[in-house]
Amino acid sequence: MDLLDAGHRHSSELSAGGADMDGASVLPLSGAAYQPYVSELLSFSIERLHKEPELLRVDGERVRRQMQEVAVENYAAFIAASEALSFVRAQLEGFDKHLEALVEEIPNLTSGCTEFVESAHQILEERKLNQTLLANHSTLLDLLEIPQLMDTCIRNGNYDEALDLEAFVSKISKLHPDLPVIQGLAAEVKKTIQSLISQLLQKLRSNIQLPECLRIVAHLRRIGVFSESELRLQFLRCREAWLSGILDDLDQRNVYDYLKGMVSCHRTHLFDVVNQYRAIFNNDKSGSEENSDGGLLFSWAMHQVSNHLTTLQVMLPNITEGGSLSNILEQCMYCAMGLGLVGLDFRGLLPPIFENAVLNLFSKNMGTAVENFQVVLDSHRWVPMPSIGFVTNGVVDDTSDDVTPPSVLMEHPPLAVFVNGVSAAMNELKPCAPLSLKHVLAQELVKGLQAVSESLVRYNAMRMLRGNESSLFISLCQAFIEVAYPYCAACFGRCYPNGGALITECRSTFDAVSQLLTVPSRSGSGISSGIERRQSGGIERRQSGGIERKQSGGIERKQSGGIERRQSIGTVASENGHLIDGPEPEVTSDAGTTAAQAGANTQIDPPTNT
After folding, report:
1. 221-242 pLDDT, tens per residue?
2. Is 606 helix (H, G, I), strand (E, B) or coil?
3. Buried b / exposed e along 211-220 (16+ C-beta atoms within 10 A)
């Protein structure tokens, strides 16, 4: 209150002094704070008002002194307050900088908070997905095990269950095309389906019956990977692979067994395949295969028949037995007749193939007979042979069932070898003698006989035969004309009716040999038209599918050269009429020399009388 009074007085003094100096200044007492003091001044008297400035001055001095005293007494507080003020100002400046940095970082904080909120939402979504996954864990596990389950079903042959699983996966993949797990599952199932298709096609390549074929084709249709035409083609391809596998397992080194196996395979399995195809793909109302599948079955069947005929054409020339050739023909005809039930009768295509095989076999056998004759003739030593048999002439009766070769031919080893070859050729021809080749085979036989005739003429022209050798050669030529030639014609007549006439018509071919018989021998002795046959012993013939001949005895001949020949001959004809001579002739010379006669132990084989 004293300070206030002093202030009032000081103000009054200042006001008075200012009024004295200026005389026109306005008192600064218009403020609301000075209103009480102004009110008090208005209540003073004039004297009091004149004293008021002095009083105010005194109060001001008093207040000044007090302030100085207080400042002196409390200078430490003032200093501390000043220091505190300075510190506060410095801190406020730092606060201002931090606040500015904070203001600058607020956008980053805002974006970070936004990111956090977004990541929190994502985490929440993932958490929800995890919770959903946990709740459906067993179901999802079953879905993921579908490929393995399908593979197990395929391995165990449960194709229907595997296809049910494939249909289920296909359905859910269409319902959820945006789920990677489902799409990945569908991709694995497709791979498994490919293995199923391979296994089904492999089953079609095995020995399966019609019910199994129906099931497999039904599964392939259900899968839908093949169109109808492609499915038919795949079926035929697989069945053809199975047939080829069966043929590949056969041993081609044995031609006869291979052809028998091939014919049997086509007779049974090709028939089954055609019936299976018709039963499975029987959707043609008109009943024509070509209208339903574009001739696919027809083309495939013709391809198989063509392969069959090609194989026959290639391999039949390797068969060297007429009986085997006849059996193959019989099997082929039976096969073609069976396949005729499904429209694949190819019997009309077989004759040309087998005719070529028969002609080739007969020509080869005749060529072998001529070659053997030439070899034996070139190495033959012209020494007298013991007389065998007692046939009075060389003519063979065509009406007789006995086609035993004349035993007189054993006195001429080259002719015996040739007749053996002809008999072998006839034996191979008899089981399979095509009537269309009658004239061609007759010409082949005539060519063989002509080749023998030419060999005899050439031999007579190139060799110098002396004395007894010339007689023996002329005897051989006479046996060829009168015995071997008619016998060959008779044998051919056994194979073909009136076939002997075709051979005898060509008798003029052997005029060159006949001319040799008209030339007188150098020994001066004539050659009788017949051949004397001497036999010591008895002949016993038994007719029970064959002829058995027994001969015992000894023939002793002595000639001027001091050569003694002894021979004990026993001849037995087997059931097929083959003559087997007895022991090899033994030649004993007084001078101690032994003559080896080539071809003396010759066997003459007649054609089998069937």
Report:
1. 998 888 888 999 999 999 999 9
2. coil
3. eebeebbebb
Amino acid identity, position 512: A
CA 398, 402, 407, 413 torsion-angle sign: positive
For residues 444 and 363, the answer to whether their CB atoms sit within 8 Å is yes
Contact criterion met (CB below 8 Å) for 598 and 379: yes
pLDDT in tens, 396-447: 454 555 567 788 888 888 888 999 999 889 888 888 888 888 899 999 999 9
Who's near 96: CB < 8 A, 6+ residues apart? none
Spacing of C-alpha 127 from chain mean position: 55
For the chain, give the longest Cα–Cα distance.
Answer: 225
Distance CA 219, CA 263 (A): 33
b/e map 328-352, b = 16+ CB within 10 Å: bbebbeebbebbeebebebeeebee
User: What CA–CA distance (Å, rounded) separates 479 from 373?
Assistant: 14
Q: How far apart are CA 256 and CA 331, in angstroms?
A: 11
Distances (CA, A) of 421 to 23, 238, 388: 184, 49, 21
Q: What is the 3-state secondary structure (H, E, C) of 71-105?
A: HHHCHHHHHHHHHHHHHHHHHHHHHHHHHHHHHHH
Closest to 256 in 3D by CA, of 332, 359, 149:
332
- pTM across the whole model: 0.60
